[in-house]
Specification:
single chain, about 325 residues, alpha/beta, Spore Coat Polysaccharide Biosynthesis Protein SpsA, Chain A, 3-stranded mixed sheet, 9 helices, about 30% helix
Length: about 325
């Protein structure tokens, strides 16, 4: 469906890293011209340096739009890190909702990868310690959403109409979807997961089903319509993108639970929502971090950045490396 080029990654020039026998994991992320390519390069470098046993796993960096290819310099740097570059030409059903391109990329990776486990990540993330990304028999491992937002407490919630309509449209039993607790505001909501870090068993085709559910919801004109303006890691989202904000995560949740699959909830140091640091409990602020989701934090002065002002529990070597990048 989409033209792509794959080349075999080489690891001879990668930093020394602990290897794990039988580890069959591939990381997938998106890079596009501008902010996303800079974020993607930093993410890949942090993965190679600080991800422990995962540091030598294959990394696929996808460019989903022909008019937004990463620069030659970025591609050269990614090549030095042993990454596979995957150029695609995707026509999204909702191009203003940028998350759709990650959905298409995830689905394509699911088709062409040979790894048992796929880890799809937002580009605005960093590894600082070896994470625990094991599925432990589940079909997916991920974190609940940060805050309630477009989620529903249940049938009396003003947002519940969207969830009921979505379940009906994609043929999922609403009552089959369990409750989870959000990370920051501790709300109990129908399961919705942060799409910035998603670990899946590839054979279950969770991403393919998620995309299919999303496309059906668009055709049915179903949208959360939560906000007119969203502050995302790559910039401000407004218009149609903000109307659809959160819908990909709702479709992901239904793709898992509606198929009778199971979830392993990752611990809080994974997909750590740094942009909400001031809203965290003191205990959350002191967690030994593994994978940081920094969103727009680097747009702030260093004194206001928890990664640079000493507020977070970070390994010394990571802090030195990051200070050299800031």
């Amino acid at each position: 469906m989409w033209p792509f080029r794959r080349r075999k990654a080489t690891t001879s020039n990668l930093p020394e890293a602990q290897l794990s026998a039988g580890l069959d994991v591939e990381f997938v992320l998106v890079a596009e011209a501008g902010t996303l390519e800079r974020q993607a390069l930093l993410l890949c470098e942090s993965l190679r340096r600080f991800a422990g046993k995962y540091a030598r796993c294959p990394i696929t960096v996808a460019s989903p739009r022909a008019d937004r290819r990463p620069s030659r310099e970025t591609l050269t740097s990614l090549g030095r890190l042993g990454c596979v570059y995957l150029p695609l030409d995707i026509k999204s059903v909702e191009p203003e909702y940028g998350t759709t391109f990650r959905m298409y990329v995830s689905t394509e990776a699911e088709k062409i990868s040979t790894a048992d486990t796929l880890v799809v990540m937002d580009s605005d993330m960093l590894f600082c310690r070896e994470p625990d990304l094991a599925l432990d028999g589940a079909a997916a491992a991920l974190r609940p959403v940060d805050v309630k937002g477009m989620c529903t407490y249940g049938r009396d919630d003003p947002r519940d109409g969207y969830w009921q309509a979505l379940c009906q449209t994609v043929g999922v039993d609403y009552d089959q979807v369990p409750m989870v607790q959000t990370t920051i505001d501790k709300a109990m909501v129908k399961a919705s997961y942060n799409g910035g870090l998603v670990v899946v068993r590839r054979q279950d085709r969770i991403f393919e089903r998620t995309l299919g559910y999303f496309e059906r919801s668009v055709a049915a004109k179903i949208a959360p319509n939560v906000s007119h303006r969203i502050e995302a890691g790559h910039g401000v989202v407004s218009g149609r993108g903000s109307e659809l904000w959160g819908s990909s995560q709702a479709c992901l949740s239904l793709a898992i639970w509606g198929s009778g699959l199971t979830v392993r909830t990752l611990s809080e140091p994974h997909n750590y929502p740094l942009h909400l640091f001031d809203q965290m409990s003191a205990e959350q602020q002191r967690l030994p971090l593994s994978i940081i989701h920094y969103h727009d934090v680097f747009a702030k002065a260093p004194a206001l950045n928890p990664l640079l002002n000493g507020s977070t529990d970070l390994p010394a070597d990571f802090r030195i490396w990051l200070e050299g990048k800031a």
